[in-house]
Design goal:
Length: 271
Amino acid sequence: MIFGAITNSWRLQLESEELIDLVGQAEAKGARHIELRQTCLGACESGQGDDWRPSLDGLDAVVKAYPGLTFDLAMAWPCLTREIAPQSEGWQAALAGAILVGGGSPQLRIVDPSAFDSAWQSPADIPEAAWGLAGLATEAARQGVTLSMENSGQPIGSMAMLVEAVRERMPAESRHYLGLCPDPTNQLRRFPHSEPLKDLDALPPDMLKIVHFKQMRGGDAIPEVDDGDLDCREMRDILAAKGYTGAAIMEIPPHPNVFANLEASFAYLRR
């Protein structure tokens, strides 16, 4: 696994420091991958919502400054509740950003922020608009971009069911470009009586595109990955047993000492 950081952990620091410098601080603490999250890119983005656009020149400068790091682009996109044309300007701009920062393995992580009343139990529970994801993923695959899906309101198993069903609507040669970004702690927060690590273990290896580590105690977020409600070392071992070699992102909360917390999270998982 490639341990990494995410820029939404740096909300406090972005108020006074440039993204390019913060990436350097994360690298100095041991990060080898950076997830560039929409709304937390400083001068490397503009607009909001449908009008959000990555600044390709700005992101290009960041990536070129750190040739020893890998990067992916992440954004909020309501693709489970609203149909979006694959050729729309916003989608094409996001793919262009992912290609620019991703080098030989570009990846766009999509988190749909929509809330749902309950977990999906069968494909019939999935909103009709979500089937438009097949067109978005096919267009991403055409450009060589892997698409990893996340929704914090749905358990890992329900999201896996979605990906399996959407893959059936895609050309066979494109299906492996669509997968998941599982976050077991999110599931445990939303469904406290569930077993997210069992759901993670049940995932086919080809569905794992990127993963997030975070921790809470008593249902409250803590500032680093450590002992808590979820056994993060067991999560690490499950991923290793599956042969997962992709990015493992420490999605730790914003904090004045966020880089010390990042370094402590890496150390915890290496022990």
